[in-house]
Amino acid sequence: MKEDFKFWRLKEKNGVVYLAFEGWKGVNVFYSTRIGGVSSPPYDTLNLHYGRGDDISNVKFNRKRFFNAVSIDERNIVYTKQTHSDIVNIVNDSSDKLKGDGMITDRKSIVLGVFTADCIAVFFHSTINKIISIVHSGRAGAEKGIAKKGVDKMCEAFDIKAESIEALLGPSLGPCCYEVGKEFLKRFKREYLIERKKNIYLDMWKMVREQLEESGVKKILVPEICSCSLDNLFFSYRKSGEKTGENLGIIGMIDDRKQAGSDFIGSTGVGESGQEGEQSEE
Predict the structure, then answer these.
(1) Which domain CATH number covers 44?
(2) pLDDT digits (tens, 9 = 90+) for 171-206
(3) Is residue 6 part of a domain?
(4) How far is residue 192's CA from residue 201's CA, in Å, rounded to a whole number?
């Protein structure tokens, strides 16, 4: 399986189906689907999250299959305890134990990962400096402006310009399915809300894009892949409720000494520190 999925490419290896973004030289970006694991419903089948009620042995096996498929050593991945906040951390070591919803690093030995099941994984790469970042932006995080704060922190911490940063959005709940109540008319700009047949829908893609534009980012890739509409491919809280699995988005730099697409490098880290992951905002 090797198909175009707008900016993402849908791939398959040993039965594991995943998305790969190949537009940033020297950087690997992957996003898991729900296909290729061993978990039973409602976590079927490639649930990568420990904290949703799935059998832990199944999740461990799923992770092993996924990381083997994308040629990554999970010990190099840094997760963060996601809390729908606007906290963005600088990561210097793969053993860092973090709390927040965004991470930034300039270390080739580190891979950054966030869990989602409708929320947006936003991937960042500085085209001038070798800096990467990932942000988990749910509705609460978007209201707090976490995407913009992630860009601001990249610029401040590494003395770079926002114009050098490119951004990519992962699959997430689209305005086709994100129905909300009338109280949202008072909480959000009208430009983020769509009224259809007396129902109101929230456009998170537009909201996050605008935040990134305000921060100075020029190149923003929004593939408009709805996790709810494609719940056969991605986990979705909106479609399935609380009892469901989670997808994983990861980004890491490629070692110049290795061929592109090969293993990431790094010292032994904490492979299971991300078990808090996503929490539903529904």
Answers:
(1) 3.60.140.10
(2) 999 999 999 999 999 999 999 999 998 999 999 999
(3) yes
(4) 8
- Nearest 5°: phi and psi at 182? -65, -20
Contact indicator for 16, 48 with CB cutoff of 8 Å: no
Q: How far is CA 169 from CA 54, 62, 230, 249, 265, in A?
A: 27, 24, 16, 10, 25
Residue 190 lies in a domain: no
pLDDT of residue 272: 40
Domain containing residue 124 = 2-172+218-253
Domains identified in the chain, total number: 1
Do 167 and 212 form a contact (C-beta atoms < 8 A)?
yes
- Alpha-carbon gap, residue 276 to 150, rounded angstroms: 21
pLDDT (0 to 100) of residue 243 = 94
